[in-house]
Batch of 2 targets.
Target 1
Amino acid sequence: MKTTGFYFTLLLFLSIVSCQTKNLATSASSDGKQVYALVLHGGAGYIKNLPPAVEKAYKEKIEEALEAGYKVLSDGGSAVKAVQKTIEIMEDSPLFNAGKGCVLNSLGKPELDASIMEGKTLNAGAVASVSHIKNPIDAAVLVKDSSRHVLLAGKGAELFCHEKGMALVPESYFIVPRRLKQLKRLQAKEKKHETTSLPPAFDGIKKYGTVGCVALDQKGNIAAGTSTGGLMNKQYGRIGDSPIIGAGTYADNETCGISCTGIGEYFIRTAAAHSVSDIIKFQHLPLLRAQQKVIFKIQDLGGRGGMIGLDRKANVAWFFNTEGMFRAFKKSNGEKQIRFYALAKH
Ligand code: ASP
């Protein structure tokens, strides 16, 4: 236990160092022009010393998503559109735990969650436990724009999307052999009671792989979105933080936009994304400090994960208490970073 504690402290220190560098490197434009920016994540977890070919594959896909979302912003498009575009690309890639290649529940089935929020109006949309929607982030946008509701779940969400003209896909679209193998391994491990202090459903999960994006557009509007398959071997019907506005996703032009990844139960219990916004608003702390406060609280409760965010001045920050987090940002002042590990090397 002592060694684990020391290890976490060390990792946190490294994360802090790496984050502050990013935050200090970012600032609003000096010529008075609206700076725009996009930050994304591809999940937190045991991301360490990846084989070069795997690292390359992640780097290429993350760069593609980053550039596509950024192009929406540079063409004058909205933050919502940029977030949607970025997340669609990551959902279509089996590298991430979102859309195709998502993790599977205890029955071996995909159950996907996604949400989006715009900071100007506080309008939001989300879907939970859907299994036939190719791009759950598109469904979240549809709920935001075309329904009276914020969150639709399961068959009702799918029916709504179908009625609005969205094509549905079979469950098999999402299932890839790698995830079936991971599920079997995890279930076998749990049978043998090789558990740690974490609740069994989370034990042995090394990488969370959810995707998220936050953007600030040329009009100064912020949007945030998150999409996930949830946690591997989760109980059928379990819903995580990602589709919960205020937990996994939040955006308010007055403060910031946030997207989270990690063990969702802790992010729900701490209302993580909204807490960051509140800390900025009422304690007047900068984004990174607010993120740290919330992640430390999650850590105190035994949770793991991370978050990305940006504020209305295009200050970008991220923070996590895991070994790594796939993350990247690009800003209209030319700054760009793609990082995987806690150490500054990558
Ligand atoms: N936060 C997600 C959930 O608990 C999982 C993840 O971030 O990968 O559903």
Target 2
Amino acid sequence: MNDSIAADRQHFYDQLGPHSLAPLWERLHTLVTRAPTTPAVPVLWDYDNVVRPYLMQAGRLITAKEAERRVLILENPGLQGHTSVTHALFAGLQLILPGEVAPAHRHAQSALRFVIEGSGAYTAVEGERALMEPGDFIITPSWTWHDHGNEADAPVVWLDGLDIPIIRLLDVSFAEPANAESQTEARPQGDSLARYGANMLPVDWKPTVLSSPVFAYPYARTREALTTLARNGDPDPCHGHKLRYVNPATGDHAMPTIGACMQVLPAGFDTASYRCTDGTVFVAVEGTGETIVGDTVFRWKPRDVFVVPSWHTHRHRPDGEAVLFSFSDRPVQEKLGLWREARAGA
Ligand code: GTQ
Ligand code: FE2
């Protein structure tokens, strides 16, 4: 192409802009790619040495009530200004100090909590409190009332995972504050786990929403299941022993927009290379090791958080036995018939 044609084209494109027109042929190749490309990059947050000190500083500068939610956003450096950890999801670390309350509200956005540090705080969902222990997985599905409080004597920190970017993409955000700071107790603690989480369901009960009626999945139970699994069978080459949090009424993911898993990597077990279309946030729960994401090597220890973006080949190398929690937008991709994975050599 000679210079004058290029200049003519550019002149033409410049004329189009003011009329809200643009040439697709200049953009098509960046939109319809042969394989996923994402602006998100692999990233690791060191909890003990970096995030925790800043979180505690935030605790001295602002109250939970004043902040409404005292959260440090884990913002993917490839998505600066987007408040996103992967293209589709939000992650943050929330701190609640002894005696504090994070006031009740509800919103279209769905949230998961994964407890990182401390015990004795609670999240109340639709009038039922769940006490939070490290490793517990708790959901606050779309439009459910929720508030948090800390009645213990030490700080409590958890990882928040929300579908904020999905809700933003679709322009479907609604939210409202409750008229009281804390919800009045509608059901005693442990009620929903007994009712829906004992491999039984109330006779004649039918689900009316997409999310799980169980909203707290204690780590003790998850760990026990994984321990038994690891004792009784061979690990999957790419995943080790990996379980998915489910809605017991449907067998689907616990929430329609965010899926979560817990996996045990046996000592000395290096996983085979793997990639999938759902960009994933991992939390190291037990043990140390490293995860190789493309050319990047992340060394992790308990409470560190790291991201494997969409379609990035990765493998885990635990030092001894290790446990990883993870969450992603996989349920959305599955519902739309878009989710794909590829194993080493496949
Ligand atoms: O705890 O309710 O990280 O509403 C972002 C939005 C936490 C919460 C976040 C929220 C919450
Ligand atoms: Fe919330």
